[in-house]
Amino acid sequence: MSSGQPIQSDRARRTIARFAGASWTAGAIIMALIAFGTFSRLAVDGDTGRLFEPGGGGYSDYPWEDENLPEAQPDANDPDVYVGNGNAVIRIDGVTTAPLQVTPIDGEYIRLSMTESGDIDPELPVEDREWPLRVGYPQEDLPSVVFPYAGTLELWVQADEQWILRIEELVADEITDVVSGQGNRLLVYRGNAVSALFEFVGDGVFIVTAYSREVGEESLIIESDPIEQRQSWSPSDVVVLSIESSADRGAWVVDIDSYDDDDESTPTPGETPTTSSEPTDPPTEQETP
User: Fold this and answer.
1) What is the pLDDT of residues 42-92, one digit of tens each?
2) Which of 12, 74, 110, 280 would you call most buried, defined as having the most Cβ atoms within 10 angstroms of its Cβ?
3) Among candidate residues 41, 125, 135, 46, the one with its CA nearest the CA of residue 90
4) DSSP strand pairing (173-174 vs 185-189)
5) Closest to 200 in 3D by CA, of 224, 176, 179, 177
6) Which UniProt keywords apply (predicted)?
7) For residue 168, which of 141, 136, 146 has the smallest C-alpha distance?
8) Phi then psi dihedrals of residue 33, to 5 deg
9) 20 or 145: whose pLDDT is higher?
10) 141-175 pLDDT, tens digit each
11) DSSP 8-state class, residue 142
């Protein structure tokens, strides 16, 4: 406990002074490093005089809310390839309504969103931009799927580092009733059904995502155990089912539910169908696509 008496020792005063000086110097150095790390990434807007980050911000930022967002350009040698660093926007003119797939050639933790219109105004103020449709996290061995509107595709990229994306026509297997396999797969369904029975045996993850024009990305199943489960998706004339599964650890079956055009028992998304169907034979781990 302090005695409350003033410090008489010159040595004690010098020790305290040195400690205080060292602490102040260390704090100043740390603050300088933080400031340098922050301002070294910033640039000045010549029109407004405001500071902005030319790299497009970070993964946690919404790129469509950045008025200084860079626009990624196609590669000179491959017009299907786009390169960027951090958040960016990709605009592709002259697209049709045919679904496209987006595959990362380089980069991790990339999130994609799409403007729900083909009539794009690049000069539209930030405050007037509509909230885009989320279209997933593409992987090298499992692309994300986008359903563009005729005109211009506006794709928003969220990333923390440099990335390379390939955007091209969808490559997927057509499914009309039942299909089985192992590993990752894209399945495209064109019909009036809105549900299917999903079966999985083995180990590892089993993730099913539905892509459609109406809702973009829709998560159906995220599992790591064997399952036999019926799931439904939002009604659409074309649906792409994305299957993610370890090829050497499990096998799966997708059995599309069938309904007549005038069948009133067709379920709404999230509901279990009232019609019954004969169960399919469960997949085996030795089963191949």
Assistant:
1) 444 444 444 444 444 455 589 999 999 999 999 999 999 999 999 999 999
2) 110
3) 135
4) parallel
5) 224
6) Membrane, Transmembrane, Transmembrane helix
7) 146
8) -65, -40
9) 145
10) 999 999 999 999 999 999 999 999 999 999 999 99
11) B
Give 29's pLDDT tier (boundaries 50, 70, 90): confident
Output the six-digit token pair for 236: 């659409």
Residue 282, SS3 per DSSP: coil
- 257/194 Cα distance (integer angstroms): 8
| 255 close to 152: Cβ distance less than 8 angstroms | no
Residue 196, classified by CB atoms within 10 Å of its CB into exposed (0-12), middle (13-18) or buried (19+), is buried
Nearest CA-CA partner of 213 in 279, 118, 130 = 118
d(CA 224, CA 209): 15
In total, the chain counts a number of residues equal to: 289
Tell me the pTM. Answer: 0.71
Q: Can you tell me the distance from the alpha carbon of 277 to that of 272, in angstroms, rounded to the nearest whole number?
A: 12
What six digits make up the tokens of 269? Answer: 């998304």
Spatial CA neighbour of 115 closest among 81, 151, 79: 151
